[in-house]
Amino acid sequence: MKTHSITHRVLRLVLSIFIVVSLAVVLGVYAYQQIRYNTAKGMALNMLSQNQSRQANQLLMLFLVPEQKIGMEILLDRFRRDENLKYSVVIHNPSDLPFEFRHCELGNEPALCRDHSGKSVAMLVPLKEEDNIFAYYFKSKNIDQNPVMFVMLRVAVFVFVALLVVFFLIFSAITRITSFTIPAALNRLVEWLNCALSGQETPVQIPKTYLREVDELADKIKVIVERNNKSRDENLRLHCCVSIAQTASQVAHDIRSPLLALTSMTAMFDTLPEEHRIRVRTAIQRINDIANDLSRKKIDHEAQALEDEYSVYLLSGLIEILVTEKRMQYRVRSDLNIETRLGTESYGVFAKIRAKEFKRVLSNVINNAVEALKEKGDVIISMERDDLNAKIICSDNGEGIPADVLPKLMQKGASFGKADHKDSGSGLGLYHARETIRGFGGDIEIKSAVGKGTDVIITLPTYTEPAWFMPRITVSEGQRVIVLDDDESIHQVWQDRFLAVGFENIEHFKTPEGLIEWFKKHESAMQKNYLCLCDYEFLGIAKTGLDVIDELKISKNAILVTSHFEDVAVRKKCGELGVKMIPKNLAGYVPITALGPQKQRTNNVNEERSANGTLSPQTTNGALPKAINPHFILIDDDPTVHQVWEILAKDHGFIIASFTNPADFFKQADQFSRDTPVYIDSSLGENVKGEDVSKDIYALGFKTIYLATGYKKDHFPEMPWITDVVGKRPPFFK
After folding, report:
1. How does 157-186 read in b/e, with b if 16+ C-beta sit within 10 Å?
2. pTM for the full predicted model
């Protein structure tokens, strides 16, 4: 966009005003002249119209007496003098009219007429008796061109010239202001601002310009500069904090992988003396506490804000963080052992809670347990689960609580065993804890025996795992597992986990470039029969695991194994790519199933007779003989889900027909009983929605249709054709 100086803009403004005023003066003079002309014309016509009837009668009488011709001439001459007429004659036909009035018409009634130049007006009055017209009286008068008109024109010219001089003087003054005064003031302001922004020493006060608008602008700029300097200092401080936090996060990341390897090997310590096992376990816990503490230094405002809202959380992650905080809090007590024993039971246990309130309750329970330990003792946090609930158990080997006191502890204001503690509180802890947990749909129970210790059991309803979570890993013979991680110890963890289930076909890579190069060479040979376990961060490499997955287009066959599973941005990216995640600290607990040798799966049924005589077909495309009707129909695009359902169906003696896409189901829908329950996933790939497909299935006569999805029920609108919204767990597996 073209810019202009202030002088140029003012010049255009002044010239525009001058042109408009000049046009207004000219138009005003012209309008005044027209008014004066029309007024004069009207006066002339009015004078012509006066006395025209009397004059016509006088002339008619003289016209009818031929001897009075001289008297007619005298009378016409008198009319001309009295009314200051240009013409005053009697005519008989149009040819007798003066040249400039030849266009006037002769009629039976008096008529007005104007000459071609518009300087004169005339009147034609018929001299008639009854219907006989003998002649016409023609009289003409000049329109009075008053000399004032010429005076007005001279005045207009004078005004125009005067305006021109005034505007020139005004323009000169404005030009001086705009060209010198304002630019000089702005230049001083710009110089001050340049010094302030460049970090040079500047005067405390901005130089005054004595122009109110410029001085007000300068004051505002000074405020902005001061805020900018303050923000710059704050940004430098925050940048240092972020750098420290990133370094701490990287160190924590580097610690977790070997820590996970050590944790997975603790199962081999059974042959060590108890004293040695305790020392090793304590050292591992201490390293874990350091890693957790470093991870917390990474600022994540989104996660902090989400803690105040109801959301679905992985309970084991919250428990590990809180226990770390408690161990740091009581680290001066060398005789106190606080540890978690979560194990495989804790994997994939989610609950819909407020994280901050849950951690506050569990923190209070642990504090109570520590206070119950007068001397050396243990506080153990473990977890159990069933189909509907998760139980977090906080156990201590303290003095225990008498049976008659237990029923009173949950009452408001009640407490026990805190008399010796200065900061024991008012007894609101357990009462508040119970009310909070009940708000989550759960409850708290206390079991205790004097001399043995106390168990506080927090029960919470479990929630369907989020879409990003991978509940289990299933591999089959002929499949290949690819591990991408920059830490050798995590490779060893996965190696041991898969070898434990008899699976040996594993490839290991430590850099994204190595995997990408290898993948391009072997992609066609693998025929998508592989599973990639990919880390998120790589030391010194900007490319993330999600970038690798996206570049190779392997989202359907990849799982992200990362400590950043709670990062909102990572979850969002996983959702966009359709990639599942496993928390890296739970890699030692994720269930792994290795399928044994199987026959080639075709459209025909390969049946096996189970111990109880029930047919359990091995199929992936739903093809079944018409003589066999399945107990359940599964439609899901995830092959892992199919494998889990088929294994569990075989173990429990059920027949299922499984389909990876709706088209295959509709081809064979006629062979199924309409009473067969149908379980269909919500996301079937390529933007196909199970809730939409289920409408067509309902139209075929299938009345029991379940939406088997990781989304919760309130995620969907009311759908009359859907019986219920359930999770991915098979209905026959309790």
Report:
1. eeebeebeeebeeebeebeeebeeebeebb
2. 0.44
